[in-house]
Amino acid sequence: MAIVARDNYWVLESGGAAYALGVDETGLLIQTWWGPRLPRPEDYPAARRGEQFAMENALQHTRQELATGEAGASDERTLDAVGATGLRGFVLRFKAARHQGNRLEIDLEDAGQHATITLSYETLDAVGLMTRAVAIRNDGAAPLKLTRLFSGSFYLPADAGYTLNHLDGRWGDEFRMQREPFVHGILQRESRRMTTSHGGVPCFAVERSAPGLAASEEAGRLWFGALQWSGNWKLLAERTRDGRAIVHLGLNDHDFAYDLAPGESRAAPRLVFGHTEQGFGAMSRAFHDFIRDDLGPRRAYVPPVVYNSWYATLFDVTAEGQAALADKAAAMGVEMFVIDDGWFRGRVNDRAGLGDWSPDPAKFPNGLKPLADLVHGRGMRFGLWIEPEMVNPDSDLYRAHPDWIIHFPERERTLSRNQSMLNLGRPDVQDHLIGVFDDLLAGTRIDFVKWDMNRNVSEPGWPGHDRDQREIWVRYVEGLYRFWGELRRRHPDVIWENCSGGGGRVDLGMMALTEQSWTSDTTVPPARLLIQEGYSQLFPASGMAAWVTDEHKEAYSLDLRFHVAMAGALGVGGNLLEWTAAELETARRHVAAYKEIRPLVAAGDLYRLASPRTQPLSALLYVARDRSEAVLFAFRLLQARLGRNPVIRLAGLDPDALYAVEGVNETLSGRAWAEIGLPLPLGNFGSTIRRIRRL
Length: 695
Ligand code: GLA
Known about the structure:
The protein is α+β, with helices and mostly antiparallel strands. A hairpin with a 6-residue loop joins strand 31 (605-610) and strand 32. The longest helix is centred in the last third of the chain and has 23 residues, at 581-603. It starts with a strand and ends with a strand. The mean pLDDT is 97.
């Protein structure tokens, strides 16, 4: 049973994890357990308030499911609000619960604030995760202003110390896994940029700090979660003075307010969470399964081999140039030919054009159709780059609607990459954009859209909004979801790629809307391997767009560049018109080989065997669900003095079955490959891809 309910006490079990909560005799909802499943329902701790200590307030040590600061508790709060009379905070008491199958809803009420709060939980039994969400309804006659809306607070079991793992980054260097011990006080991670941002992904994986108890790839405990949201977020890893560890995650309360009119409700983003005793690998595989099988818009998505012209042409796009590239791409086996930036009206550089989404007549006198037909005629599908949330001041759209920009009338509008952000919180802006892009997609057969977003917000004002302007942080993201979701609905066959100056907006919110994500503008192999490893912590390789480009081609072989990109959704982005016949032939061979292994990369279970974070080596294995086959990727990075050949221990194979590794004479059991390992003759920047088959 996914959820066991008894006397206002609930145990949610999914995979090896359990989460329990119950109501005490005063009606307080208490989080009693988060960790491994316990053998019997009676094993879970009772819903009791914490002990009272000298000079501590009454609820200080109580694990409130929603921390509200009631009775002077001074830890961080999950929620906060101010009512019309000045009443601040919440005092929540149990009202009702509904439970069916794998879903549970609990209503709490605050008689003083006249609010009902509904918590919803779901166990995702097939993937071993759980979700929680929280919504607040204003039942009173006066407005209620929300000032904090986190999605959850999690209390870790009493222990000596915890370490937070999170994904940090910046442009060109996304998804850097960081490991930092909880500090005395608060460790804070956030985005204030309107997108989730290059600076991090709203997620956490907490392990024990004691050396023998830390988590590794395939062992050790992790308490983890991620937010399904694509805007400002905040994570607090809190260590209280008495040593308790609490993690809070939700909407950022920086510059945040949201008005609830009488009768109105507002939900916080859904939080997906779990616990494992099998380390980072198990956490990642659970998220990958969840995204591929449950959250993502297309089940069993297998990415096409893409050619993208950005690095080849930059803004110098012409119909003839694209046609010439398309010929080369088709001969290589490419399946999706994508024109990047530079195809639309006025777009000769990054100073003009954004906002005017029709083909530039100087470049495409007969529109895009002739090129699309040519691409289709070569047996490929046709894709286009757009950046719909943006506008250059030098565009007809801006001249017609200068008020559609996010801005403060009293301040100068700061441009970034010469562009401003449209206020997607406004329904009229959403409607305009839906109309424009619906027409574009209806006019020419477009099979793939790369949707970019290339700046951070500034002057976050919304003149004319008749409520608190700080709602912009939430309404923008919801406007984006509506806009994109509506285009998806109207054009269900289009494949959507999410991009924000590389991987600046990769999160579970986007995973629900898009098939793939442009991981990073950095494609140079050693840096890229680190970025891809970080990406893989949460997100599956089926959507991890990875291109072979000409970046530092003098230093890294074409084989290496292909091998790195073949570990994800393979694309090619080099200037094919300058590639030699031998290079084009090498590329053709790799594309063909990729198509053979692609089902495993897209749907296999990922095992990270060697991390470039800790040694000049990277190795990954994608294993078929039934463990009948696998594909190994191994890369040796720069080592000042080459020692012995690296030995890669394979994980994830059936221990008792026999496996043969391509290029190796020996046949060994899965257990032997895991214990003894596979020596690989790799020199500096050498790489190999090996298929592994069960006999
Ligand atoms: C961003 C993207 C690139 C490319 C350019 C186009 O930087 O990450 O891949 O699309 O914009 O302007």
